[in-house]
Structures are given as structure tokens and as C-alpha cells.
Amino acid sequence: DVGRARDVFLSERQCAALIKACDPDFGALVKSxxxxxxxxxxxxxxxxxxxxxxxxxxxxxDGKTKARTVTLSDAAIDHFRQLAKDKLPxxxxxxxxxxxxxxxxxxxxxxxxxxxxxxxxxxxxxAIERANQTIDDPKCRLPAETCFYSLRHTHASLALIAxxxxxILAENMGTSVRMIEKHYGKFLHADRRAMFxxxxxxxxxxxxx
Length: 209
Known about the structure:
This protein is mainly alpha-helical and 209 residues long.
């Protein structure tokens, strides 16, 4: 459903509602995806040692295409700093919280687990349902087709709207310029139009000049 996921573009309001509706552990992962455009598996496998917060980068040695270094925004740096706080370099940046039972005492305990393959599907569905319950206007609710990959699409779309260089965006996301142009062309055209709109209109030029 990657193609359908690319058709879903979330607004800032929808993104905020989604993060708020998530359980804290999953909300952190969702926010990381929105801030970096990273794939689910890439983000789930990241360890604290992959972060270089002094230089604002995140190393992805096992990317889908090849190893890359992601440049982080100030907001992303703050986000990952909170996630990495008091953790050892080998610790996962993102951990899944699971309730278990202490075999010795029989009391419930919270366990830290890895984010396994497809674990995000059920969490995403539940978060979307919760988020839409908080949005009164049906037109503003998150589309039913929204999935984790939609966060990557949203990041790319917002980056292009903000004027991020297409080559830099492609390198950051671990994809090609051709793929960016193919799937996000409408945002590129809007960005280019905005640039040309900054040129003089000459509509009120002094004829006597």
C-alpha cells in the first residue's frame, strides 16, 4: 500500500492530533518519522550511538538503499535528545513498552521491547481512531488510508513546501531525486511558483521613468 500511502498528506493539525492520540512510546516513534522522513524499520533499529547531537545528525547504516547520514532540524535534535537521555550508547532510541508479569513476585511490570516488523500497524490504526474522535469537522479528520508510511510522505511534502533543496531532501530520506520528482511533483511546482511570484510584477511601473 505504499502507493496509496503517498496519496495521504497530513496537515500540521492532523499530525499534532495523531501524536497526541498515540501511546507515549508510539507517539515518540511517529514524531521521529514526521521530523526525519525515516522508514519504520530504520527508526526502530536506531541506537543512541547513531546520534550525533552536537552536529545534529542521525546515522542510518542499514538504510533500504545504502548507508546515509540524516541532517536533523533543531526540533528533531531536541526530540532525540529527550529520547536518548540517560541511555547507554548501545540502547535503542525507541523502545516499545509492554506490560508483563514478574515471575518471582507475580506483580505486573513494564518491559522494554524492540519495535518488531508490522507491530506499528495496529498501533497506528488505534491512534488514528482516537485522533479522529477529537476532530469535529469530518473534512479535517485523518484519512482511513493513513499508515506509518504516510508520515514519510508528509515529511517530504512539508519539506518541499518549505523550500528544502530536492537533492538534499533525497539524500536525507535515502531515495533518489527522480523518485522525489515522480511522487511529489505537485509540491515542487507549488514551490517553484512561489519563487517566481517573488519576482517584480511590473504592474505599477512608472511609464514616465
